[in-house]
UniProtKB/TrEMBL annotation:
It comes from the Bacteria. It is found in: Membrane. It comes from Staphylococcus pseudoxylosus. Belongs to the dicarboxylate/amino acid:cation symporter (DAACS) (TC 2.A.23) family. One of its GO terms (cellular component) is plasma membrane. It is a multi-pass membrane protein. This is L-cystine uptake protein TcyP.
Length: 459
């Protein structure tokens, strides 16, 4: 118990150090990087001194989880309200007319088009690295995780395809706000869209009532963003706890065994990120500028592993640094949370399908590859923005292709490590969708985009 108390004292000292950095106005990225580095070093120390399965490690991480899991819980708390109000408020900030439909189409095309490309990249990477789940031995944790995934798949595939499509609709939006269904995220998006279109109708036929509603929606948006800002300020503390726990409890032997999958995953993620930059360049914009101005958001997404938590920074970056109008920024960032996530819904399930296929005796031929791409596109609707999104997408893809879902459990040891890169790519794609849409509809403020000096977007 004394050793546990000692670890807690050291941890609290680190937290105080991060607080002092904040008081001295050290920039947000530097605080997050510091928390990340300290967490990795502290986690390695605990891992090497006490061991993964020691009582001291378990007790210590149990206390650390108050900060780490508490931070994740707060992110989960704001997900549904944030998605809902961001989409509704987007309708109040966008100009109605011919461009309205065009904007929606462009954002949709960017999100779905890139997820199709990411699926292809994932398949190529898996084939190039020769990934094969049948060659990996399942340990206790992996077997347990595999059984859990198989159980979830059974529940999710109990209905026919038409019935599954019906489940996307918000029959009870109040239930979906609790996130209890696997399709709750897309259901809230659909419900918010209905509210938004209803607002436009009221605005057109009853301008006085419409303006009153607009003021109310804008006020509610400001309130939710104030809550989000408070949660975001806790990020360095949460990152410190999460990284320490992740490293301290990681099975290094398993990570070494699955190292090829980790390398293949990041190779695919990097290639897809470069494709994003090629698209930016093809739009006539400077990709280097895009990288510099979006780096802070990607750092947050990478360390927090939360696309939803990154939403406020995502919107602010598009508006204040990239020159994207309010409405387009809100639409692309919000829809990007549940549609077309390149990392979680594109690369990951596609790689998993190719990896699992040999173990199921399925030949990876052109017909199989086309089937994977098609299923990945469909399954990319409704992927949650905080944790579990990649699992949800992989279950849908594997079960639809009649592949053994349980074999996905082999990746439990490296899941957090891969999820960091996936989340960053997801967020980058939504910013690409907003910037590209603004450019193609002539709404992009290129002076803002090209401006070399810019303020921080998080404090």
């Amino acid at each position: 118990m004394l050793l546990t108390i000692l670890n807690i004292i050291i941890f609290v000292a680190f937290l105080i150090g991060l607080y002092i950095m904040a008081r001295k106005h050290v920039s947000f990225p530097k605080r997050v990087f510091s928390a990340l580095g300290i967490g990795i070093i502290f986690g390695i120390a605990v891992h090497l001194i006490y061991g993964v399965d020691s009582k001291v490690t378990k007790q210590t991480m149990d206390w650390f989880s108050i900060v780490g899991d508490g931070y994740i819980s707060l992110l989960q708390m704001i997900v549904m309200p944030l998605i809902f109000i961001s989409i509704v408020s987007a309708f109040t900030k966008i100009k109605v007319g011919d461009k309205f439909a065009k904007i929606g189409v462009y954002i949709f095309v960017f999100l779905i088009g890139t997820v199709a490309i990411s699926a292809i990249i994932g398949i190529i990477s898996a084939l190039a690295f020769g990934l094969d789940a049948s060659s990996i031995d399942l340990g206790g944790a992996e077997s347990s995780r595999g059984s859990e995934l198989a159980s979830q798949a059974k529940d999710m595939t109990a209905n026919t395809l038409p019935q599954q499509i019906l489940q996307l609709l918000p029959s009870n939006p109040f239930l979906d706000f609790t996130g209890q269904r696997t399709t709750s995220t897309i259901a809230v998006v659909i419900f918010a869209a209905f509210i938004g279109f209803a607002f436009l109708r009221v605005m057109r036929k009853q301008p006085e009532s419409g303006n009153l509603l607009k003021r109310g929606i804008d006020a509610l948006y400001s309130l939710v963003m104030a809550i989000v800002t408070f949660v975001l300020r806790l990020t360095p503390y949460g990152i410190l706890a999460i990284m320490t726990s992740t490293i301290a409890t990681s099975d290094f032997a398993a990570i070494w065994t699955l190292g090829k999958f980790v390398i293949a995953s990041y190779a695919a993620l990097i290639v897809m990120y470069l494709i994003h930059l090629i698209i930016i360049s093809g739009l006539g914009l400077n990709p280097v500028t895009f990288v510099k101005k979006t780096g802070e958001v990607l750092l947050f997404a990478f360390t927090s592993r939360s696309s939803a938590g990154s939403l406020p920074l995502n919107v602010q970056t598009q508006k204040n640094r990239l020159g994207v109008p309010d409405g387009i920024a809100n639409f692309s960032a919000s829809f990007g949370l549940s549609i077309g996530q390149n990392g979680c819904a594109g690369i990951y399930p596609a790689m998993l399908a190719v990896m699992v296929a040999p173990a199921a005796g399925v030949e990876v031929n052109l017909q199989f590859i086309l089937a994977v791409i098609g299923v990945v596109i469909i399954s990319s609707f409704g992927v949650a923005g905080v944790g579990g999104g990649a699992t949800f997408a992989s279950i849908i893809v594997l079960s639809t292709l009649n592949l053994p879902v349980a074999l996905a459990g082999v990746l439990i040891s490296v899941e957090p490590l891969i999820d960091m890169g996936r989340t960053a790519l997801n967020v980058n794609d939504s910013m690409l969708a907003g910037t590209g849409t603004a450019k193609l509809t002539n709404n992009l403020d290129q002076d803002t985009y090209n401006q070399k000096e810019y303020a921080e977007i998080a404090n």
